Amino acid sequence: MACLLVVLAAPVARAGEQELPAEAEVMQMLRKIESARQHESLSPLRRQLETQAVESPSDAMGAFYKAWLAYPADTCWNELRSLSSLHPENPWPYVGMGLIYVRWGMLDEARGPIASALKQAPRFAPALWVQALQLQAKGQLPEAEARLREALTQLDDPWIRADLGLLLSRQQGREAEARRELARAVEAWPDQPEPLQVLARLAHEAHDSRAAAETGEKLVALKAYDREAHRLQSALWLEVGEQQKALHSLERYAALGGADPAELSTLARLCASQKDAAAEEKVLKKLVAVQDTPEPLLRLSELAEARGDGAAVESLLAQAAARAPQRSDILLRRARWLVKQARLREALEAYRSALEAPENPVAETAAEAEELAQRFRLPAEPAAGAKDRIYGKVSLGLVALYMERLKENPELKGLLKVRVEVDSAGHATQVTLVQDTLKDELVAGHAYFAFKDAQYLPGRAEPVFQYVFRPPK
Questions:
Q1: Would you give the distance in Å from CA 246 to the centre of its chain?
Q2: Cβ pair 440, 420 in contact under 8 A
Q3: pLDDT of residue 1
Q4: Do 357 and 325 meet the contact criterion of CB atoms below 8 Å apart?
Q5: Taking the domain 228-291, which CATH number applies?
Q6: Domain 382-469, classified CATH 3.40.1000, yes or no
Q7: How far is CA 312 from the centre of its chain?
Q8: Distance (Å, rounded) from C-alpha 143 to C-alpha 141?
Q9: How far apart are CA 343 and CA 335, in angstroms?
Q10: Which CATH superfamily is domain 292-375 in?
Q11: In this predicted structure, what is the pLDDT of residue 310?
Q12: Among 68, 221, 307, 457, which one is most buried in terms of CB atoms within 10 A?
């Protein structure tokens, strides 16, 4: 693409034998360079300008643009200083030097280049612009505003107008004016991060959420790899109910390494609202790593259950319980899931744990636990006393339950052998089904809980109880 170096009919000044391009044309080229800088695509322009410098070594404006590629570094200032010596009648190197001085905070030093530019071209709009920025930096806001407005009467440029909008935005009660100027500026030249950011803020403060979100989207386009920009943009889209756009913003935030638990939780919720289980699961796994709460694990268990992955459900519920061992509602979830799996003995144990846990109790827990316990036909009062006495009482309940089970399975028979570990106080600390050829969940469960609930004589012991079940002839 050819550089903007054409000669216009009304040059503003001369530099030696060269006519200068119009101010608007030069500012357009500078904006082009700044846009390329914002989009990290300066290389093509650099190659183009370097080629032109070789082909036209005496072209002052080509050298000026080439120097501007390094703005506002020392390299740029040095090249502009050299150009001002070679072409003292050209105001542009002075403008560039003054702008760099202002950017560096060297406000007194900026006066000289600004005066030189205005000497070469009185009322030169770019010089007035830089002078306004110098005055603003010194706190002389009315004078700075006057210079900016004077510059705009000479040259309606979006860069200059953006600086007027920024100046107005810093003054109480002039927010509406600032919005108008900034909106015009970014409409003509969108590649301006600070004006876009301020415009979005002003719109938000004026409760114009839609305008804030739309402006924010333009800002994000300039900051494609800025995860904070994507995070803020997601909040703006959520404010106006644009869930799909908020989802996209948070996906970019997460892809760039964003790991704030609140944002990941919102992203997971948005994925769920879109019924995208795979995406939701991916986000939840990230959330598990950065948030030490059971909630993402519980949701992952629901997703695993929906796809029929029982092993994952069990693991996830166990992890959730480990994170919040006093949460009754989590233990209840596991109990209900075990019932669905027909693992009734484990389910009743989970129900009992849920009843003992003090946090987040669920009203239905006791009734559900009692309903399941009745299926095991457990005695109203646990057995107590010597091991023979306990054996006898448990036998009565086991035989009664076995006879009921025979109605469903007349061929039911087998051996049940149980070992109980008893502590010094006579409490069962562990019950193990050493052998179970009967393979009946309810009969085995009755034996397990009856011996676990029994009160043994004080003193450590490991009694073994054995039953043989055969249908009556």
A1: 11
A2: no
A3: 33
A4: yes
A5: 1.25.40
A6: no
A7: 26
A8: 5
A9: 9
A10: Tetratricopeptide repeat domain (1.25.40.10)
A11: 93
A12: 68
